[in-house]
Amino acid sequence: MTDVPEPVRKCANLLKGTKSDTEKFAVLFMVTKLVKGRDANAEGKKLLFEAIGFPFLKKLLVSKDLPSDCPPLVYKSVALSILTCFCQEEELATHKDIIGAIPTLLEIVEQADDEDYEDNLIVVSEAYSCLKSIASHAPGQQALLATGAIPKMSQIYSAQSFQTDEALHLIVLLVNKFGVLSWPEDPTAFHALIQRIALDMETDHTDRKYELCRILADILITCRKEVVNNSLDGQIWPESLFKGCGDILKAKIGPKQRDPALHLIATTLQVLGIQWAFMDEQKQFFLSLLQLAAIEVRMQMDEKKLETTFKQAELLTCCFVILEQCIEYMATDQLDLEPKEKQTTYTALKGAFNQVMAVLTRVSNDKIRESTNPRDKNFIFAIVRILSAWLAQETTAMRPAIYKLLPFMLKVANESFHDLKTWRTGSREGEEPIDVLRIMMPALCHFAVEDEARRVLFTHKQDEILLEALEFYFSIAHWKRPPIPRAERLARMNEPDPVPTLEQKAEMKVARGAIVSLCNILMNFTVLEPKRAEDGATFVNLLKFVVENLPELKDTPDNLVIHGNLAVLGLLLLKQQSKKVKQNDFSICRYIQATIRFLWDAYNIDESNDPTALVVSIAYKGNWSDLSELWFLGMQTMCGVLPLVPWLSEFALESGWAEGIVKTLKKVKIGTLPANVKSAYEDFLSQLVDVNGDVQEVLKKADALRVCRNHRMMDLGKKLFGD
Questions:
Q1: 265/256 Cα distance (integer angstroms)
Q2: Cα 343 to the chain's mean position, in Å?
Q3: Residue 113 in 3-state DSSP?
């Protein structure tokens, strides 16, 4: 320690020579001057820290048993003044003793409103300074998280105590570091904090309003979305945000005000969904928002250097979030627009997306496309994502340019998918990557039926990636309890079965949506590329995946739509690959049983108010818009599969399905059976009769004659009874 200044060395020796706390405390007044002066370098502070000894400083902070010649607050003030200077050095700020003092420091700031501190608020200020320095380094951040500093600071700010902005800045620093892990399962502290800031933002009309917009956005994006959305009853902060943001949209503002406002709006939509934009049950906020975001995109991307556009990545990404939610909402046809509003909206969107296309085309030909800078990479992901959302709805415009750009879009989307896959199978550090491929799937459904686009997809082996994505998302949707280590199995034998967390349930919902889109794309491929579906290795593996996994899928209401999609996809593939199917292949047998269950359970009369009316079963009713076409396609494809794989007919007989259809239709009132349902059943039963000699007798025993007469099933009647 040769570089320790002489005054500091002398002071350290004095401290070491003290024989009582009173003597040591007297020397501390010299230390306070030294540590704030020019003589105290890092080595000097370290020497003084060791000479004082942390236990003595801790005693001054917490002990009631101190000499009575000074008020306790004076001892505390001196100790904190010295600690604040020590904490400016990383080595001391991360020292285990100082990190161990975090609960004491938190206690001081929590008591800022106590009468004891009213006369000496510098104590609270010094405590905040220490916490701020500790929070600047990873060990301190971890310790603050572990001691519940974020909920405690949230309570301090929501109670509007002294120096609450210090608490707010600490919260922002920590939530930016830890994201969703910042918040406990109990959302009380989160709601209280957001309510306080939202109210301040709504009622403040100075520049602080826009600073609070930025802070709100930083905090909101880290929340546990499912927990927050499930506990919104009685919370008024969504309304405060709506009013505050509405005032900003109506005001004449410049970029300094507009940027943080767009940032907050985009984040709020990500947390609360598009319904938040209709809190007043009017469409004006929504339309103003859409226009503002579209104009901003057009302006920021208009004929500028790519470098300039990329500098605005954060703002543009916020605009993309807003536009994506607006486009998805408009696609639901819930928005009632006047002709003029429709025209204005479409013009704004078209202008914005022409610019998005132009920028992405330039990116695809520029060296920036290979950038490893996470900021650049994420912005390219965001551009491809928003363009994909637009192409899911805009199915005819700009086709030649899109086909040209499609290979680059696929490359970006596939890279993002692999980033997510790696993240989920690894340590899951940092923010969860967004899968742009999943967002692109609805657009790929359209591309799958366009000859030129399909050619591009197969040229770039996209079918292989889609199979990989199906396997990945199925592993999320088909949630299984984590395996129990063998050594613990006996002890945990009587444990109740675990259930997925709210976050896992949200992931499963997203995964189910992805599976439905993937099945649609792959069905289109199978039908429109029969040769590939028959011989291609990807399609052989795809059928193998379906027949092995469909029977394993849990029979729950949430899984019904993916059950139907996988069942019908399997039938379409089975039809193309029938020559390869081995008789009584065990996995095919289990798959067909699961498929029969889906087709059989769709209609019944037991759940009808009228015992003579065939109705869609209650389990299917809520999703019938998604299942209806699948059911008819499944019945039709089953008819196509039976002549090619006739031994499958045994399952229709042994399960009782064929007989069950006849018995059900026998009870149905004449003239009430819908024509398309009648055709589906008649074609299927006729096909069964053709491929299996045992079917006739079974159907006749079930009174097929009456069914054929009642419902005018002429073709089936001829097959069973002749003319």
A1: 15
A2: 33
A3: coil
